[in-house]
């Protein structure tokens, strides 16, 4: 099985590592715009060969693991070149615009729209790790538009990597993911910005920061090259979530101003319910 991974960072590299472990017969070909990333992936051993787009005709599986703004342009080019039995899936955090970009493509049935809910704050080939996707949810959109045999091929890969599958339409996916992923990244970036602006002496930040701050601001270390395009593609949903979030922050501020700490206690107590929601998920 010839597997081509386009984009050799955390997500693409981790897929390569796990597919090599799950399929003894897999040959992993790497494609990346950065020669440094290609060399690093080869030296780390999670790809077998450096490759380029012109060789995609020999691919049995193509994984598109690049920023979503680039993926919209690259995905139709990939579909142009593959053979009829090749499965193509992406791993982007937005789905609606990507699905629309290939909705009329003659090889639309070769494409499976996927979004594994997995990752870390790190990026690049060195960030790739084994078992990143084990016990993680993989959201599949428009599965009915993918050829059945290629659906089976994709589900076999996801199963061997230990992923749970959920099905969703692209619009619902983008709306829901804005709340549970995109908003949390914005919150982390802006918390980091606020603290940096306030604490001019960085030594104070590191001396006083506890585990709560570290865990909350962790996502601010994520790659802007990946996240800025996500926010652009999901702009309307992100703005809606920001409006609701800002309204809650303003309400909390008003309670503080009014010394209404019993209401603050009640707000926090009610929100503690999230522990039962997330139990067994995170």
Primary descriptors:
single chain, 282 residues, alpha/beta, 8-stranded mixed β-sheet, 12 helices
Q: How would you describe this protein?
A:
The protein is α/β, with parallel strands linked by helices and 282 residues long. Helix content is 52%, strand content 13%. The protein has helices at residues 10-22, 35-44, 68-81, 96-101, 148-160, 170-198, 202-208, 211-217, 224-233, 235-257, 261-271, 274-278, and strands spanning 2-6, 27-31, 49-50, 61-64, 87-90, 111-116, 137-141, 164-168. An 8-stranded mixed sheet has the order 3-2-1-4-5-6-7-8, with helices on both faces. Strand 2, helix 2 and strand 3 form a beta-alpha-beta unit. It is globular and about 65 Å long. The mean pLDDT is 93.
